[in-house]
Amino acid sequence: MRVSRDQAAENRQNVIDVASRLFRERGFDGIGIKDLMAGAGMTQGAFYKQFQSKEDLAAQASKRALEDAVNRWSRAITENPDDPIGVISAIVEFYLSPEHLGEKMNGCPMVALGADAARQGSDVKASFESGINVHLDILENLIAETGDEKPRDTAMAILSMMIGAMTLSRAVNDTGLAKNILTANAAQIHKIFLFEKSGTPPAAQDDLPGS
After folding, report:
1. Rounded Cα–Cα distance for residues 11 and 17 (Å)
2. Tens digits of per-residue pLDDT, 28-39?
């Protein structure tokens, strides 16, 4: 049966959505085209009608995953439009939470696929570069409102700390160690970057995400 142009476009978006989650769960090399298409309810033969290659799909799926991550941050801004420190705190607390730790399929692609992306071609890296810059822009704009003299540098430091902490936490079997890594980094971000701006002492270790 011939597929309409609108249906073909919808099918393509469905494959990208499914791939964005499956790649985060299994890695770019951890799943093949056949299983990706099966996850989207389609046959392997339909793949090359929609994508030039698996790397083409990986680039599109990475873009989609990073857009999803940005949307989560945007919701935090919407909920606290006049409180930049409150927004940053909300982002940090969510990012370094046990809920995010367990969200391997729907969590941050910079954690799930960052190392994989470094071994991919230029198209995948371009998707990541664009997404990373959007995350940095959000943090930089929020930090600039606090009077920070080098908001871009601070944004890069906070994002790097969060990604590193979540990456290490997912790499260990010891759940206690994983939680301690997250709470220690949350405490340091609050102490180094937020306490001096807000005048509010950092939360006690037992009050931080994962405790």
Report:
1. 10
2. 999 999 999 999
76: which 2 tokens? 């935090």
102 to each of 95, 107, 154, 179, how far by Cα in Å? 11, 8, 27, 11
Q: How far apart are the first and last CA of the chain?
A: 55
User: Do 135 and 109 form a contact (C-beta atoms < 8 A)?
Assistant: no
Token pair for 151: 């908001």
Query: Does residue 114 lie in a domain region?
Result: yes
Residues 97 and 210: beta-carbon distance below 8 Å: yes
CATH of the domain at 83: 1.10.357.10
Query: What percentage of the chain reaches a pLDDT higher than 90?
Result: 73
Q: What is the mean pLDDT of residues 152-172?
A: 97
